[in-house]
Amino acid sequence: MDPTATRLLGRTGVALTQLGFGGAPLGDLFETVDDAQAQATFAAAWQAGIRYYDTAPWYGRGQSEHRTGRFLYRLPRQDYVLSTKVGRVLFAPAHPERFDRGFWAGGLTFQHRFDYSYDGIMRAYEDCLQRLGIPRVDLLLIHDLDFWHHATEAKVAAYLAQLFTSGWRALAQLKESGEIRGIGAGINELGMMPRFLDLIDIDFFLVALRYTLMEQPVLDAELPRCAERGVGIVIGGVLNSGILATGAVAGAKYNYADASPEALAKVARIEAICRKHDVPLIAAALQFPLGHPSVASVIPGAITAAQVESNLAHFRRAIPNDLWADLKRDGLLHPDAPTPH
Predict the structure, then answer these.
(1) Which of 52, 132, 293, 313 could share a disulfide with 69, CB 3.0–4.6 Å?
(2) List 28, 54, 127, 144, catalytic entry
(3) Which pLDDT tens digit goes with each residue over 229-258?
(4) 256 classed as catalytic
(5) Annotated catalytic residue within 28, 85, 115, 144
(6) Which CATH superfamily, name and number, covers 6-329?
(7) H helical segments located in the chain
């Protein structure tokens, strides 16, 4: 599969390289990365022809946006597609010396608040541009409006209402004025896409963790509904936080946590079929989502140039159709999952 070939993202008219670049790891997600290494990682992606870059204020609390911007801002703006996210406003903590970084290994010392109102989205958008040092982004996403981050139905419903009655006006205004070319939402869990589709005229979803070689529950109802509406899909978390790269090894991460025995067992079975066909597990994982016609790009992260080069090599790896057939036969892949050819 050609990583630099492009696909249109839904009805936005924006063409994305099939292999994009996910910016969370360069926000010091699981380990700290120095600036020189981060820039070398971006350079490897650029030199290979990757032209879609995704970041967010949450990734390292501004760190990923700063690093993304420092690499891209000198390059011809028409030569790449850039997306970032709104929904959080960053601010200085009252007591920096007691700042809790949470699960970020490093990153910057900024607190955040959720705000999906008109003013909150405009503030977040303008702050994004300042951190990036780039005067416009192509795609802007509503970030983390889900149960992972808000826990209760009351909070999720309240923030959805805030978005519908206030924040959506900001996003629509930015698109109508030509400042952005598409509006998306980042989704981490099953059941949220229909709620967005019922509320707003969204252009695309960035689906993290839920359409991968490990799990495809969105195929039952959510992706078909997106296809009916012409809503595009970008796939994040394509390696499920690492387990589809490392395989079933001790300490493997699955969806931001240590993998359960059940997850390890399933990956081991997938790995066995991949070995039968002489295909690395990661190659199958990177290519699988692009079998779906609504998917425009997969955006794995990387923290070294070597990881970028590895992703590229695995993305180009030829995969026989029989591998997908064997996964379906053994109940390891959704029976209706469209697969690459």
Answers:
(1) 132
(2) 54
(3) 999 999 999 999 889 999 999 988 898 888
(4) no
(5) 85
(6) NADP-dependent oxidoreductase domain (3.20.20.100)
(7) 35-47, 63-72, 118-132, 147-150, 153-162, 168-176, 192-199, 222-229, 243-246, 261-276, 281-287, 305-316, 321-329
